[in-house]
Predict the 3D structure of the following.
Amino acid sequence: MKDPFFISLTSISIVTSSLAFSPPIRHSIISVSHTPVNDLPLPRHRHPAVPLSYRSTPTNRGSILQRQRTYNHAIFSSSSDDESSTTPIPKIDQILSKLTSLFPLFVLGSAILGSYIPKTLNWVNNGNWISIMLAGVMLGTGMTLERSDFTDILTSRTQRTSIPVGVLCQFLLMPIAASVIGRTFLLPYHDPQTMQHVGKHLFLGLVLVGCSPGGTASNLVSLIAGADVALSVLLTSCSTVLAAAVTPLLTKFIVGSAVPVSGKALCFACAKVVLAPVALGVMLNEYMPKLCKWVSRWTPFASVMLVSLICGGVVANNSAMWMGSTASAGVLSLPALILLSVILTHSLGFAAGYLVPKHVFGFPERTARTISIETGMQNSALAVVLAKSIGADPIAYLPGALSATAHSCLGSGLAAFW
């Protein structure tokens, strides 16, 4: 495929994925006194190599942060960088952590494979494999959480302000951006060959992206941007739990009569692939913490691979239309149109997510950056699963599949700029 948008996205993905490992960025990250995390399920084990020089954090944030320090140290430093280390972090942990941070490249590679050799990933669309894969990702997320992570939110004056504003931006600004961009670029689209109104299905897919909770890698990007990582983790957790009720209601409200959508089916799908797995993970962490500690060592990279398979499978399922679409006079090709819509939606989310907390609510710079990143980066795999669960046309899965790479590239580039 020689579409300029696709080529540009490939180049940007390669560049931004390497930013976290360039020396200037790495040194600036080490100087930040918060702990990087990834909203994919993260390792929870502690290790003697973890430096004890981190700035103290509020106790209500400590339970999350302490479970991530080994993972973060494996990414951003080595035994030679930290003179206080007495025991090096196992090599396998360093490899897994760095592979996890290459999430945009894995998603992009899977999309390219699905485009050119669709038979290699078409099996992902059979049966309930997509739902099972996302449920596995959500289960791993739940296994890194404790009940106190949610109850503590109500006991902190700071979080009683920043958490609601962050969640409000997540479920208000992004849906508005998706609605405006979708109605402008996607909803009017008709297939030039068959004249079918495929734009309404693409519009539904983009709205589902906009109404989804916080996305993968947002916590790691928050660290690179010098944002508040603890707040980022809590925002991701809260929006993920609330998505079971909020995402279906918002989607039904926005698409209205433009696309027939069953609100009941959306609620059931969210409860099945989000709420139930996360709740099960929290329960397992409470009663079998040693098992969760061992499993959480492997779940970050496993989740990257599962999300990549989901996105690649969606592209493979639509490869005929994706690869066969060409631009006509005054009209963008279908791949370019979808990519443009997805990129604009996330860009608006990043911009509004920064400006509203900063200038409307008067939050400090670090908090505004955190909410911006959480707003702009979505759980795109959930949008794919929901579209599939309600029986939408397969082309409705494409915005979610492309969103995974787009928001990771945009977020990494914004973090590097900050």
